[in-house]
Amino acid sequence: MKIRSDIIRMYRDIHSWVGIVCGLALFIAFYAGAITMFETPLQRWASPPPQFEQPTPLEKTPELVEKVLAKYPQAENRYEITLQTSPERPARMSWHTGPRGGGAHYFANLAADGSLQVTSESPSAVAQLVDDLHRQVGLPFEHEISDPIMGTVSLLYFIALVSGVIVLLPTLVKDLFILRIGKNLKRLWLDFHNALGLFSLPFHIVMSLTAVVFAFHHQFYDAQSAALASGERPPAETHAEMGHTGDTLSPVAIVDRLKEQSPEFRPAYLQYHYEEDHGLELRVAGVNPRHGMRGSTVGFAGVDPYSGELTMTGYMPGEQSGWFATITSFFALHFGNFGGSPVRWGYFFLGLAGAVLFYTGNLLWIESHRKKRRKGYEHREVKQTGASSVLGALTVGVSLGCVAGISLTVAAAKFLPQWVGDPAGWHFGIYYAVFLLATAWAFIRGAATGAVELLYASAAATLAIPSASLVSALVPELGWNHGGSTYLVDLAAVVGALALVVLARKTAERIRSAPAESIWFAGRVEQGASESVDRAGASSPA
Amino acid sequence: MSTRKLTSRNWFGKASAGAIPGFLLSLALCGVFARFGPGEVGFFSPQAQFTMWLMAPLWACILSFCFLFQTGARAWLWLGGASIVLWGLLYASGPLMA
Lengths: 542, 98
Fold this sequence. Notes:
Chain A is α+β, with helices and mostly antiparallel strands. Helices cover 54% and strands 8% of the residues of chain A. The termini of chain B are far apart. Chain B is 68% helix and 0% strand.
C-alpha cells in the first residue's frame, strides 16, 4: 500500500513520542492485568483457611441472618450471603460497616451449637492490590487522580496503535512474516515489535477503547446529559415494589426459584440491600458458562426477595436483551470472562505480549537514537545523549521493578497475617518499596548491568512464591496450601522465574558484545582502548 | 491549494484541536445518534449506555487522525466548524439541555 512519505514520517514521530510517554505505564497495566486473569486462584492461594471449622448449612442461613441483625443492626442495609464458601469467601454471611463496601469487613457463621461466630479477618488483599495496579497503571493515588491519568494514557495508546499501523502499512506485505535474526539488532527488535503488535491488534484496540470508557464514563455521561438530554425523562428506574409485609424467601428457596427461571445460571452469592424508600432488594451474582459477563468474574440478576421472581435481567448472563448483551460484550471483551479457561489463558498471554510490546518499543527508541561510531571517525569520542541513558534506566527499572514487586508481595501473602496487624498495608508497602528500589538501582548501575541484576532479582522474587508454598507444606504453622487450582499459581511462578533467568543470561551475553558507546555496554572492555575497538566491540583491547 | 508536506512539528495545535473541538464534535455525533438514531441520553438505559460508549471510538479516532490536517488552525476550523454545524442541527431539531 502506498502512503505519502511525509505522512509516514509524521506518524513515526507521533508513534515514538506517545510510545515513550505511555509505554511504561502500559507495561505495568498489561503485566498486572495479565495476572488478574487468574485473580480467583491467586486470591485463594493467598488467603488463609477460613477460621470457621464448618460453614453454616445453607438451610440455617435465615437463623444466622436473624442473629447477626439482632447483634449488628448496621448490617441490615447491605449484606451478602455466599452460597459456596471458600478461602476467598470464608463465611456464609458478610457485611461492611462503611457505605458501598468501605469500612471494616465482617464475616459471620453459626457454630455447630448454633452460637454466633464473627470475625473481621479478611481474605488476602494482594489480589486487589494487583488489580489496583492494573486499573491505575501502577500509580499509588486515589482513583480520582489516577483515573484521568489512566484515561489519557489509554487515548495516547490508541493513537500509538493507529500511528504504528500507518507506519507499518507500506511494508506490511513484505515485513509481516519475516523475522530477521542477524547482526542488525534494531531490525530484529523492529520485526518482533511489528509482528507482536499487528497480530494482537484487535486485542489492543479493544483494551484501549474500553479503558478510555472505564476512566472517563462519568465525564462522558455528565457531558451527554448536560448537553444533550432533552428533559423528557422516563419514570425513574423500577425498584422492587414497596409495602411488602410477608416473609422473604430463604436462600435455598431463592436458588430453587432461579433454577426454574434460568436453568443455566449458577448463582454464587446473594447481595441484600435495604433502603427506606424502596424496601428490601436482592441482587444475585453468578455465572453462566455460555455467556460473557458484566462484572470481571460474575454477572448480576435482580430478584424479588419475597417471591424469587426475576425483576431485572439486564446484567444477567444468558437472559439479556440485545442492547444489554451488546453493552455487556464490551465489558466481557475487556475482562476475557467468556469461553472459560482457554480464553483466560489466551488473554493472559496476550497481556504479557502487550507488556513485551511496550518494552521492545522503548528499546527501539533507544536503539534508533543511539549514536554510532562511524568509519573514518574512530578517533572521535561517541557520547550517548542523556535522554537515552535515562530512558534505558527507566525502562529497565520500572518494568523489572513491577515484576519483582508483584512477585515479592504475592509471596509474602502466606506469612503476613501471622506476623503483622495490617497485611493490606504491608502488601502495598512491599510492592512500592521493591518498585522504587529497582528503579533507583537501574539508575545507579546503568541500564545494562542493572538489567541483568534486576532480572536475576526478579527471578528470585518470583521463585519466592512457590518457596512460600513449599515452606508452608513443610511447616504447616507458618502458612497454608489449598491445593486444586492454587498450584497453578506456584507452577506459573516457577515457569516465570525460569523465563526471567533465561532473559538474564541472554542480556548478559548481549552486553558483553555491545559496542563500547552503547548504553548496553557494561564496561568490560578497558577504557582508553576505544580507538581500536571495532564496530562489534567484541575484540580484546589493543 | 498548495499541498505542503505534513510534519509533526506543529503537533500541539492539531492535537489540541483533536482534544477540544474534537471532543465537542464527538459529543454532537452522539447527540445525532440519540436524536435521529436508536440511542438515548440522560438516564441509565442500555441505549444511553451505548451512546456513552460511542464517545470512546469517536474521540479516539479524531485524536488519531487530526494530525492529517495541514496546520493547527485548519484543524481547529474544520473540527470546530463541523461541531457548530452538528450542534446547530441538534438545536434546530428539538430542545437541548435538560
